[in-house]
Design goal:
413 residues, alpha/beta, seven-stranded mixed sheet, four-stranded antiparallel sheet, 15 strands, aminotransferase, PyrdxlP-dep_Trfase_small
């Protein structure tokens, strides 16, 4: 006898990064480069101001319920931030952000409010697996995957276009995740504008189709290369001129303010249709009310004080610089070891991660276990051929050693 609903039968606990991270933690002395967090000396890389602001909050401020869409000042401050980060957009088209329990809940809202069985989801061939759990297992969307990079290791606008034009369904959700998890890639200004041009042309040629453009900006701001720093919304906002396009931005303090456990994310809409914008806010609040009811007041009170604190902003910039220094150290170590002569290193220029495609004779799961047990480094095997490494977890001095040992392990195979 099974007590499960159809969804209950199909839902799974993926053997993904959380499981592999636990396996790494079980190995004495192992360095964990699996999970999407920034660490220093094996501890979360915090903003020192967090400890101070926590002591300043009175329980009369954080014990009451928060409004369902979040604290008004919190929402206003985040809208101001989005406008400052994207000066080219029309401020009147941008909704007030609504607070979500992490960006994951934002993705769940975007999926549930705008897609259902029989709709399509367009993703790169390498993507965060929770997208599939939410859109396909829970909602029955069909996934179409384009190759993020071509045979020359360049961002593939051509394959994106081919895949988009192959979709038969009338409603299509497109998730644009830059900096990307798992590859750590942000398109160049030219590439991003070309991507948006393809979407806009498709929308104009297929007016009967609805396009939901979702920007997952979890790693926003961690851009390390010139001409690869344009925020996604600063390009996709132009799609609002198409009546069959809806633009959604998902972001949060999680990575941007080194506050992963506070679980403060935001969902924000961009549309020139005033009536639709108001309806989107009402429907989203209804969905929030039926799930979490209201976000954590305590987390918002902490976040408020971080956003309004000059010292906290300076601390954030220091941490961002540390991540960038690790990125530069990683690029140098790869070059010194000539690692790309043994494996295919996918392009990366931002965020927390980079991804390696192993030779066809090496199974990624077997490699991961050998690298963990014999070399004491935990990395994430996404499938049979790709390894993702979170350099955000690696103190700068550990990076050359990891690359050297990775090379040794490859040679053993």
């Amino acid at each position: 006898m099974s007590f499960f609903s159809k969804l209950g039968e199909n839902i799974i606990l993926p053997q993904d990064v959380l499981i592999q991270s636990k396996e790494t933690a079980a190995i004495p002395g192992a360095i964990n480069a699996t999970i999407g967090i920034a660490t220093s000396n094996k501890k979360a890389m915090a903003l020192p101001s967090i400890n101070k602001v926590i002591t300043e909050i009175n329980n009369s401020e954080y014990l009451p319920y928060s409004p369902t869409p979040g604290l008004p000042k919190m929402r206003e401050l985040w809208k101001e931030k989005i406008l400052a980060d994207n000066p080219s957009i029309n401020k009147d088209f941008l909704s007030l952000p609504m607070v979500t329990t992490g960006i994951t809940q934002g993705i769940d809202i975007a999926a549930n409010l705008f897609s259902e069985s029989g709709d399509a989801l367009l993703l790169p061939n390498l993507f965060w697996q929770n997208y599939a759990q939410i859109y396909t297992i829970k909602l029955g969307n069909k996934i179409y995957k384009y190759n993020q990079f071509d045979e020359n290791n360049e961002f593939s606008i051509t394959n994106f276009k081919e895949t988009l034009y192959s979709i038969k369904e009338d409603k299509i959700s497109l998730i644009l995740n830059f900096p990307n998890n798992p590859t750590g890639y942000t398109p160049s200004d030219v590439e991003l504008n070309s991507l948006v041009d393809v979407i806009s042309t498709y929308a104009k040629e297929n007016k009967n189709k609805q396009l939901i453009i979702v920007s997952d900006d979890a790693y926003f701001g961690l851009f390390f290369e010139k001409n690869h720093k344009t925020p996604t919304l600063s390009a996709t906002y132009k799609l609002a001129e198409n009546e069959n396009c809806l633009i959604i931005k998902l972001d949060g303090i999680t990575k941007e303010y080194y506050s992963w456990g506070l679980r403060i994310g935001f969902i924000t809409y961009y549309t020139k249709n005033d009536e639709l914008r108001q309806l989107l806010l009402e429907k989203t609040q209804g969905f929030l009310r039926s799930t979490t009811s209201s976000p954590s007041n305590l987390s918002q009170q902490i976040a408020l004080r971080l956003l309004d604190n000059k010292k906290a902003l300076e601390e954030k910039e220091i941490n961002d610089k540390i991540i960038e220094e690790r990125y530069n150290e990683l690029k140098q170590a790869i070059s010194v070891e000539q690692l790309d002569s043994l494996v295919r290193i996918l392009p990366f220029n931002s965020g927390y991660f980079f991804t390696i495609k192993l030779p066809s004779n090496i199974n990624a799961h077997e490699f991961r276990l050998k690298f963990l047990n014999e070399y004491k480094y935990g990395v994430y095997s996404m499938d049979d051929e790709h390894i993702r490494i979170a350099f955000s977890c690696l103190d700068k001095e550990l990076i050359p050693e990891l690359i050297n040992k990775f090379k040794q392990c490859i040679k053993q195979f």
